[in-house]
């Protein structure tokens, strides 16, 4: 079910219209919205998503240079613009969802797909440190990283660290071994075929099975 959170009432209606269709396995939206996803304007949509029992997937994308997160960056080319904007949309929404206590308020599986994984440990460390300084402004009483560990993350575009073993170590250190799913972004030019995971030198066989099979089976309630 594709929704536009900038129109929460209509999106909630769309979810309720199709949520009992046996062919539907998740709800998806762009990660780039007028207001971050923790904003109160999205509460009606979250109520519908919670009632559906379906995962809510946010898809990173490069917006035009005038909207968030592209506006004001003034980059010189699309390489620079894309490298930052795909990630900033997810960073913005994850921070907002956590700070506003949305995971405590709603039983929803939040999923972030496209772009990469390395922004997650960065945000965990950054938010935990900021929580020590100004946590009284957030609507939570636990470390932000505890919430981020409950979210799900897609692999595409799969990173290739100079030491491949760093990939699985990163998942272990951040406690994300059971929160990462394979994603392809087919048919875009930067598609990651399954071999991206199967042939990854830095992932154990067990972790590959989790990413390709076990975690998505659980998340999307697949037989």
Secondary structure layout:
Layout: H1 8-18, E1 27-30, H2 43-52, E2 56-59, H3 78-99, H4 102-105, E3 110-113, H5 119-134, H6 144-148, E4 152-154, H7 165-174, E5 180-181, H8 195-198, H9 205-219
Parallel strand pairs: 1-2, 2-3, 3-4, 4-5
Helix pairs in contact: 1-2
Question: In words, what does this structure look like?
Answer:
This protein has 223 residues and is an alpha/beta fold. The protein is globular, with a radius of gyration of 17 Å. It has a 5-stranded parallel β-sheet with strand order 1-2-3-4-5. It has helices spanning 8-18, 43-52, 78-99, 102-105, 119-134, 144-148, 165-174, 195-198, 205-219; strands spanning 27-30, 56-59, 110-113, 152-154, 180-181. Helix content is 43%, strand content 8%.
């Amino acid at each position: 079910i594709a929704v536009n959170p900038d129109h929460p009432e209509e999106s909630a209606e769309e979810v309720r219209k199709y949520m009992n269709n046996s062919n539907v396995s998740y709800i998806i939206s762009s990660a780039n919205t007028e207001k971050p996803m923790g904003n109160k304007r999205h509460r009606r949509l979250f109520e519908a998503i919670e009632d559906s029992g379906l995962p809510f997937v946010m898809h990173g994308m490069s917006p035009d240079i005038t909207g968030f997160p592209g506006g004001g960056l003034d980059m010189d080319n699309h390489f620079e613009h894309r490298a930052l904007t795909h990630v900033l949309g997810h960073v913005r929404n994850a921070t907002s969802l956590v700070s506003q206590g949305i995971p405590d308020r709603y039983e929803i599986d939040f999923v972030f797909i496209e772009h990469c994984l390395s922004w997650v440990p960065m945000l965990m460390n950054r938010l935990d440190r900021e929580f020590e300084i100004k946590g009284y402004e957030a609507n939570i009483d636990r470390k932000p990283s505890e919430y981020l560990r409950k979210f799900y993350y897609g692999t595409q575009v799969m990173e290739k660290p100079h030491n491949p073993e760093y990939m699985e170590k990163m998942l272990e250190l951040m406690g994300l071994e059971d929160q990462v799913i394979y994603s392809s972004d087919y048919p875009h030019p930067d598609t990651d075929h399954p071999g991206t995971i199967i042939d990854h030198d830095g992932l154990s066989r067990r972790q590959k099975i989790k990413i390709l099979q076990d975690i998505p089976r659980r998340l999307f309630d697949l037989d």
